[in-house]
Every structure is written in C-alpha cells, then in structure tokens.
Amino acid sequence: MYDCSVRIVTQTEGNVTEVCASGKVKKVLNGFQVFYLQDGDEVAVLVGRDTFTMKRSGETELFALFSRCEPSRMTVFFADLQEDIPVTTRSYTVERARDGVAAELSYVIGEENKSQFFKIKFIMTGILEEK
Known about the structure:
The chain is built from no helices and eleven strands. An eleven-stranded antiparallel beta sheet has the order 8-7-6-5-4-3-2-1-11-10-9, with no helix packed on it. A hairpin with a 5-residue loop joins strand 6 and strand 7. By secondary structure, the chain is mainly beta.
C-alpha cells in the first residue's frame, strides 16, 4: 500500500463542493483501489479503466458503480433497509500521470421527470511513495 492524497470536486445544480483527504492506495488489475475517510466514514474507491466504484461504510452506507460498459447502479443502506436509486452514467474518463490518477465522471440520479445531474472530479496523487 502507498500513501496518497485524495481530492474530490462535486458539481450539481450550480453548487460546488470539495473534499480533501489523506488515504492509502494499492494497484489492482486494471486500476487503483483507494481507501480514505470522509466525515468519519470509511470509503473505498476503485478507479478502473471502464468503471468507477465506491463503497462508503459508517453512518452513511452507500454502494455505487458507474460504468461505460454496463448498467450503472447505486444503493443506499438505512439500518435494515436498502434503497436502489436509478442512476445513469453520462461520461467517464481516466487520466494517469506519473504521480497519480484523475477520473472525471458525470451521471444523472433519478427518473426522467425528477432527476439531478452530477459531475465529479476524483484526483489521487502520491501513488509512487510507499510508506
């Protein structure tokens, strides 16, 4: 595992939020798996060539799969209940640099008559520094 820095910029409905965190990364087949904390919750992200997955555990439990090649899906867990949320990936790109990876993702949550558009930039740096 390597130390890394994570920066996530989210845009939706004219609002922009930014989260920065320290984490760990490991190389896996076709990508990188990144682990970090967000608002006290553990987050695991897989940045792959064709897919971006996120699993968040803690107070907020969430699983999301965004893909260029297969249907996307998102599930939120509340106590003993789970809710599947309609999600459609509009675009997904990954760029690898010498010291990190940048993934850009745009997607729509909800049905046609009631939907919300999101754009996320996920930047992870420091993958060459083993600790």
